[in-house]
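Q: Structure for this?
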Amino acid sequence: MTATISGATSLTGQMLIAGAPVRGTGKEVRAFDPAAGQPLEPVYQHGDNTHVDAACAAAADAFAQYRATTSEQRAAFLDTIATNIEAVGEALIARAVAESGLPQARITGELGRTTGQLRLFASVLREGSWNGARIDTALPDRTPLPRPDLRQRHIPLGPVAVFSASNFPLAFSVAGGDTASALAAGCPVVVKGHDAHPGTSELVARAVTDAVTTSGLPAGTFSLLFGSGPGLGIALVTDPRIKAVGFTGSRSGGMALVSAAAARPEPIPVYAEMSSINPVFVLDGALKTRGAELGRAFVASLTMGSGQFCTNPGLVIAVDGPGLDTFAAAARDALAGSPATPMLTPTIARSYASGVEALSGAAQLVGRGAPGTSETACHAALFSTDAQTFLASEALQAEVFGSSSLIVRCADFEQMRAVAEGIEGQLTATVHADDSDLDDAGRLLPLLELKAGRILFGGWPTGVEVCHAMVHGGPFPATSDSRSTSVGSQAIERYLRPVCYQDVPAPLLPSAIAEGNPEKLWRRVDGRLTQD
Amino acid sequence: MTATISGATSLTGQMLIAGAPVRGTGKEVRAFDPAAGQPLEPVYQHGDNTHVDAACAAAADAFAQYRATTSEQRAAFLDTIATNIEAVGEALIARAVAESGLPQARITGELGRTTGQLRLFASVLREGSWNGARIDTALPDRTPLPRPDLRQRHIPLGPVAVFSASNFPLAFSVAGGDTASALAAGCPVVVKGHDAHPGTSELVARAVTDAVTTSGLPAGTFSLLFGSGPGLGIALVTDPRIKAVGFTGSRSGGMALVSAAAARPEPIPVYAEMSSINPVFVLDGALKTRGAELGRAFVASLTMGSGQFCTNPGLVIAVDGPGLDTFAAAARDALAGSPATPMLTPTIARSYASGVEALSGAAQLVGRGAPGTSETACHAALFSTDAQTFLASEALQAEVFGSSSLIVRCADFEQMRAVAEGIEGQLTATVHADDSDLDDAGRLLPLLELKAGRILFGGWPTGVEVCHAMVHGGPFPATSDSRSTSVGSQAIERYLRPVCYQDVPAPLLPSAIAEGNPEKLWRRVDGRLTQD
């Protein structure tokens, strides 16, 4: 019962629980090839509560041994996962392209991003600051009371449940950012794979499982399950052995997990990246000098990947006038010339179409892309409205996942500020400003800081760099926890907590906070950063 | 309508909303002097929703200006609060002693701790690492895509609601750790004062308000309200302008706030420090060589401040045998010689008595302290039970706030480990070990790491040092968020979130992440810590 991809790697249609292939018992799931308009073999099946129990039990069993590994051991493990993924690269790319309908170049890039993330966390582990080492030395002669010896380091929270996203079948999926950061932190991971790309998920899960085995780690360090969000997903989040959750997806899906986690006897942190319309503020000077150019660049960002990005520019805010007219006309023309591209699944395409339908009733149409013929074709759309209408309408602020955007025409700059104050929390906020706009931009910036995790000037929000300074997060409802990021090296912190060691005998001290600094870490000693 | 304390400072019985004294409209509240067995003047009154609205509106108004202050301005502000508190030190100490029944030496020490905390956060601001500055430099020539310039810093979450604790009328109250860390972070603060010490609260609130004025800060930076938890407290937590909550108190009170915050249209973080019984593991070698000495030291920690500490040692776990008998006998004798000391309020004393009553039915009495005659007297109590009974009983794990503790007799070391695995999350876990116990201690330590925020050897948990490495936190139900601490310099992080700046023009960059590092901060540049 196996299917062959590129003649190289066979798929079994099974989940992987602590290293063992297990067939599900529930709903049958087949991936759908949007380009071919055909379902793909093999058939997968959703797991049930016994599979959740088995994966969580194995993860809990693995935790003690896995978290006791050294930073170098976990770094080598992450490197091995990356190498294993590259080893099935051709088959993996073929399968991910078939399952997602995304262009091969994009998936190839995403594979590089995924292995790059794994290696980034390996480097974070080797650098060592993730330990959060702090030492306050004893002051035995202090009066009226001596100070004990106090040391702090960070330890992992425990087994983590990761929910794959549909739109990044590699980088936000089975071995994506959440899995990489949780494994780096020392947390076993149970992934709920996305039904949109089960074959891709199986291939990657096998690469991880092989790395678990060859690295000599306990099998429960990693499992992949398939299942529905409301069923298996909630069972996973409410399992008492799960201690944190990473999620990328819809607002309704994310909030269901947030509520379930909060209602547990022991509530746990949920990092849900949910909903963002990514406002783009175009200031007067920029509009005047390069309105048409900006309109075309905007459409390129809007239609990339059929707009299926958390950071898709779904809102353009500018002062009404000839500059904005030029921008809108150029955008309309560029849109008219942009072909319909496939969306990830028929369900997503239907949901997009109904979102556009809703906007059609509430705003004026500026233009549309070329219509498509297939079931999954994304028929891009651009609308406009005035600021007053926008601010009064909740519907106009709702995310439409796909290539749909809304121009908000403002009477003046003060109204642009009012829009900035009126919107919900966002992953990103973009400003286009010329030198002549700097004063206005400076007055906008403090408002945007309170609304977004990332503020960018002169570009488009759809590129999310994987690095140290990145914040892919932001105030609610962009995420459920604005204190964190799901992209970049800082993501390791979401799965850690601090522990203080008071007068712990030297032979028992973890090496990160041991005397003599054997790992040569940056540590805060008596309040001062030092590598001594 | 003013009352005089030590003839120096008059109390008005009013709340302070954005600098203005306002009389409440609700329930009348008088502090109670447990030593004298008398209520204290003046009468205070609970506020209502209009007061919550006024305080939150003022805090929201103040936020933009307050968060735009420099680190140095906020540091000077915190220093001024400390100086102002010291200026009313004598009157403040007298009032706090009268309201709490705690010894003058303890309150004097707590005043020093409170001003010390304020100055610690001033030093944290001046040191600057709180900014979390990270810079990934642009790579314009990178292929296939250039890398933009990416910078990250931390900004404050917004107005914070702080709930005072009863048991530290200064250090965990109006200008305690939560207020100091939130103000340091750049968050305006609305305090709900504790009914047990309204006069102390008013004096401290005036010291803060004076500092707000003389520092030229917006009046809404600080407000003090009085009110009930379920009424005014919930109104405060669910006000949309409040963006985070700090709380120290009971499990039921904390969980009510956690639930209310999670049910908001925009959920917010709640840092509730709630419940801990602080297990003390006494290993065989230590018991053998100094069982009696440990028993006496244990009782000193147990009865200090009538046991009204979050870190009171409420559980002693050891292997049954002659060593433990010696420990228990010494503890029983020390307890018999320990006088009844007043508890904070009659309500707390009644709650303690009923907790002890419940334990009497479920465990064996080892000994009691001297009985008291007053309404608030704490009649210390020590019980014992076997590990099997303990592990099967939820009631035996419940916190009894006051000088009550329970010895858990284990059959062997493996059963001690089972107890360590079976208990809920704790603020602290203590180990007494001799050199001969090191192997056992090493096997216990990984279990305790998963259960407690602080692990200490050879001491007692009731001292909580204010420093950089301290963790006063821990897994649920010790706190609602184990990723944080409510004591020590790291507490500033709970009120911050990261923001990323991509290609932001140099004139608009915040100084913490500006070119040339004008503040000479430690920053992570391309992954490497540097002060360049």
